[in-house]
Amino acid sequence: MDRNILKALQLCPLFDGFSNEELYFVFDRVPYRMVRLGKKDPYLLAGDSCCNVDFVVHGEIAVRMSGASGKSVQVCVKTTGALLSTAFIFSDDNTMPVSLECIKPATLFRISPEMFQKMMDDDQRLRINFIRMLSNSCNYMVKKVRMLTLHTVREKVAIFLLQEARRHCSDSFLLTMSRQEIADCFAVQKFSLQRSLKEFADEGIISLDGKHITILKKQDLISVAEA
Fold it and tell me: Distance between CA 93 and CA 103 in Å, rounded?
């Protein structure tokens, strides 16, 4: 197997605790194929069935939920090492409630659900890691629903900024998404997001320079997020 593929698979939580040699052994006799998608190509649309087990080897895929009015919410973005549609692979109803679309050209490593099940039957570590991934996915979705339905725009923005600080391991960071993409994550209007950012800047809680943000009063931001 190509070294770059193994390197990408190692980033998946499914293979936590596996050495390079062990991972190579897992896939040594597993039939697979590579799938390539261009920017803006759909991977799955809401209403489609999840029939494959796909790992992202390269690229970015956005997970979005849309309503009848056309309004959409970006749930998350899947990057290198991600296992796609984790919760739907073995679901009794594997019809996708969300759409997945490439926001950067993507390469996927694909195996069948039957082979995936056999892999987990043969190695208890994979089963435990997969269960952990399902649990983490459930936990993430509960928090996402709570944020979308129970928090004000100001609270949502505070939560997002704190999450970005943790992701960058720094209170000073560069936003990797546009203002519209961030607003879509919260299901809010772009101007509402801009207003909240400006309010935080006017209050001296953050400094704002284009896409560069520095959190100046972290405890104040935490207080808003936990309100």
Answer: 27
Element (H, E) at 55: strand 53-66
pLDDT in tens, 196-225: 999 999 999 999 998 999 999 999 999 998
- Going by C-beta distance under 8 Å and a sequence separation of 6 or more, which residues neighbour residue 86? 130, 133, 134, 137
Burial class (CB in 10 A: 0-12, 13-18, 19+), 75: buried
d(CA 163, CA 177): 14
Give the phi and the psi of residue 78 in degrees, each rounded to 5: -95, 130
Dump pLDDT digits (tens) for 51-105: 999 999 999 999 988 766 667 777 888 999 999 999 899 999 989 988 999 999 9
Kindly report whether the global pTM for this prediction surpasses the value 0.85.
no
